[in-house]
Amino acid sequence: MGVDLRQVVAGILTLTMFVMLGNMIKRDHFDSVEEKFPGGATDAEFDSGKVTEHGLVAFSKTSNGPWMENAQELKPCWTESKFDQAERSKGFITFSLTNGPEYHISQIADAVVVARYVGATLVLPDIRGTKPGDERKFEEIYDVDKFVTSLDGVVKVAKDLPDDVSIRDFAVVKIPNRVSEDHIAESIDPIFRTKGNIRLATYFPSVNMRKTTQKSNSDSVACLAMFGTLELQPEVNEVVDSMIERLRTLSRKSDGRFIAVDLRVDILEKKSCHGSDAGAAKNCYSAQEIALFLRKIGFDKDTTIYLTQSRWDESLDVLKDIFPKTYTKESIMPEDKKTKFLESEDSEFEKVIDFYLCSQSDVFVPAISGLFYANVAGKRIASGKTQILVPANIPGTSASVTNHFSPYISKKNHLAYSCFC
Fold first, then answer.
1. For residues 105 and 296, what is the distance between their CA atoms, to the nearest angstrom?
2. Could you give the CA distance from residue 52 to residue 56 in angstroms, rounded to a whole number?
3. For burial by CB atoms within 10 Å, which of 57, 107, 304, 384 has the most?
4. CA gap 170, 344 in Å, rounded
5. Whole-angstrom Cα distance, residue 58 to residue 71?
6. What's phi and psi for 404, nearest 5 deg?
7. Which domains does the chain have, with CATH numbers?
8. Helix (H, G, I), strand (E, B) or coil at 305
9. For residue 370, is it left (φ>0), alpha (ψ between -120 and 50) or beta?
10. pLDDT tens, position by position, 150-169
11. pTM for the full predicted model
C-alpha cells in the first residue's frame, strides 16, 4: 500500500508540536507575575476560555483522551519571618462562615486581614448553612489546630469568647469581599476603637471576584488566610479520600484519572441554562451540553465523571448515555457515611465534599460560572492541577482541547500566582 507524503509530513509536524510543548513546560512551569488574580471569569471569558500560553500544560502519552499532565506544585511566597507579632488590643472580632466552602475561603481572608490591621483577637467562627437552624461548629468540618497554628504570629485566635464578654455588645460591621486597607482605616477601625468588639459580615459585590492590580501590605496576610489556614478535619477528609479512591478504581482504563464537573440541577434551572445557542456567551451549561463538549474534545465513553449534583436527576440521563461511568455522591460514598454526610439536601458537608473533591480531580469542568469555579481553580493551580476545561457549544464533530483551557491557567490571570512562587 502506498504512503501518502502529506500524512507523513502531518505526523512529523504533530510530533514536533508535542516535543515543543514538553520542552516548554520543563523549562518554565510558572513565571513570576505582577498582576493579581481576579477570582472569577466574566461570562464572556467563561464561554470562550481560550488561552494562548499552552506551555503551561503537557499531554499524557499513555491514556485515552486528552488527559494532561500535572504542572509543578507552587511554593507559598509568604514565610513566618515576614509576619511580626502585631500589637494586640483587648478587643475581639467574631464572624460566621456561610454559603459554602468557596465563600468560607474569602470570609476567612477578610476576617484575618481586618483582625491584624486593628490588632484584635479573632474568635473561631461557626458555620451556618442556607436553611434556618443549620449551624455547625468550626471543628465539625475544619481542622482547628491547623487553623490556629497557621495564624501564629499573624493574629491571635480564641476558640471562644471569655465568659465576661457578651456577643450582644458587639457592633455589626458589613465589609466588602477583598476588603482594602483604606476601607478598614476609614470604615472599620473607628468603630472598633469606639465599641471595642465587632462582628463582621462579608458581602460580595459581585459573584465574580474582580481583577485587582493595586498592591497592598495586607496581600501576604490575605494569601496565607486563603490558602494556608483551612484543612478538613480527619473524618471529613477520610470521606473525601475514600470517594476519590473509588473513582480512581472505576477509572482503570484511563490510568485512574477522572473528571469532576460542577453541575447542579437546581442552579441550572434558576439560571435558565436550557438551550444551546452556538456562539452565544453563557454562564452555565446543561448536562447534554457538557456531554457533547467532553465527547467533541476527545474523551471516550469509558471516562469516569463525578458530578457535584448530590442525587441523581433524570435530566442527567443524557450524560450517562454518552459516559456510562458518571456518578454522584450517593453512588460512591461509603455506606456507613451516608447517614451523616448525606442527611439532608444542600448540607454543608455535601458542599465541602464537592469543593475538595473538585480541587483534587484530574480534570475540572465548571458547568456553572461563579465563586465555586474561581476558588476551586485557585486551589488547583496552587497544587499544580491545571487541567481546568471551560465548556462551550462546539459546532461540528470535534475540537481541540487546547482551545478550552481555563483563562485562570494563563500566567497573568490568577491570585494563586500572587500567593505562590
1. 34
2. 10
3. 304
4. 33
5. 8
6. -130, 20
7. 92-228 (no CATH), 234-419 (3.40.50)
8. strand
9. left
10. 999 899 999 999 999 988 88
11. 0.80
